[in-house]
Amino acid sequence: MSLTTTTTESGTTPARAGRTGGEPPSTERAAPKPHASGRGRARPLADVALSAVGACALVGVAVTVWLGLWVTPPDRFMGNLVRLLYIHPSIAWVMYICYGVAFLSSLAFLWPRTRSLRFDKLAGASSEVGVVFTGLTLVTGSIWGRPTWGTWWTWDPLLTTTALLFVLYLGYLTVRRIPGEPEVCARRSAIAALVAFVDVPICYFSVLWWRSLHQAPSIADPVTGKTYIHGSMAWTLLLSFVSFTLVYVWLVARRYRLFVLAEREDDEGLAQALAERRAESSQVRA
Amino acid sequence: MNGYVEAGYVVGLGTLAAYAASLVVRERAARRRVGAGTPTVTRPRQVRAPGDAGSTDTRPLPGSGPALDPAPGDSR
User: Fold this and answer.
1) Do A13 and B75 touch (CB under 8 A)?
2) A222 alpha carbon, distance to own chain's centre
3) What's the total number of domains in chain A?
């Protein structure tokens, strides 16, 4: 649904349609029939869906914590420290999802046929959530590494490239805040997101490409598919992956809505300033 | 268990909870600023006069309330 409909309904928000090159101005669209567009129903449905995702994520994380801390047995080698691995790999997994979505959204924005500012917002939302998850990946990994490796930090390839990811996407978020025309800002940000994404495969494959202190992927053999963990440990880890993915969906949807609201706020401020300027000029003429 | 495990869970989940709460608070504040109200309220689009049943004018009447927000995924 476009802002055109919002303009029709509220009469206060200036039309942004056409800025992204794919939508006609509001005046060229047929007026929607009252109660026929489904808009009145779509909003509550979206909210209900988002609430359901949030509830599922909350329950999933709570069950993961319960299973991870109290139900699953200690590991033969790591002891109780294995319990940290019910959250650390899941958080890292979500980090990759975040940057993957940001990458695809940025590509979609730069692609002329799919160019839309909604992809820019999605990339921004996903990247911001990604920075949070990257920070958590580093911190939880560090907390696990101190008793396991004997150090909080080491310049291991995976750790270093993950820290680089954190800095790169912080830079991306900074680029997003540089003022300018929405389309120009979005294009600039999309290019920055593509550049930052170069580090993602390097980060993921670093444990295979270089001799690393960090273990290689050890949940399952990538070639044979044979799993190395079983029983309650495997189910807890699987639940953790699903739950944190749902957390990601909920956070990105919330952040996306914030972008939409901020944009509307800008539009309303612009409309108000224009109205005041018109009123001033009419007073001068009078 | 040792303190590292508890610290990892507290830091990880606490940070996520704080970030989620900040998003909710910021969204509510933004809604207040734009006067959008709660997103789940379905607002009647138009109040028609009895003799105006055939009209296709969908402009809202003055004071008919704020516009609904676009759903997540809406383009603007």
Assistant:
1) no
2) 27
3) 1
pLDDT, averaged across chain A:
84
Q: Does A270 touch chain B (CB under 8 A)?
A: no
pLDDT in tens, A88-124: 999 999 999 999 999 999 999 999 999 999 999 999 9
Residue A236 lies in a domain: yes
Please report whether residue A139 resides in a domain.
yes
The answer to whether the CB atoms of B8 and A253 lie below 8 A apart is no
Report d(CA A184, CA A21) in Å as an integer. Answer: 13
Give the pLDDT band (50/70/90) at residue A214.
confident
Cα–Cα distance, A54 to A46 (Å, whole number): 12
Strands (E), A8-53: none
Residue A117 lies in a domain: yes
Q: A25 in a domain, yes or no?
A: no
Q: pLDDT tens digits, residue range A219-242?
A: 777 677 777 777 888 899 999 999
Whether A38 has its CB under 8 Å from any CB of chain B: the answer is no
- Are A34 and B58 an interchain contact pair (Cβ–Cβ within 8 Å)? yes
Residue in chain A nearest B7 by alpha carbon: A143
Range of the domain at A240: 50-285
Question: For residue A179, what are its two tokens?
Answer: 């003022």
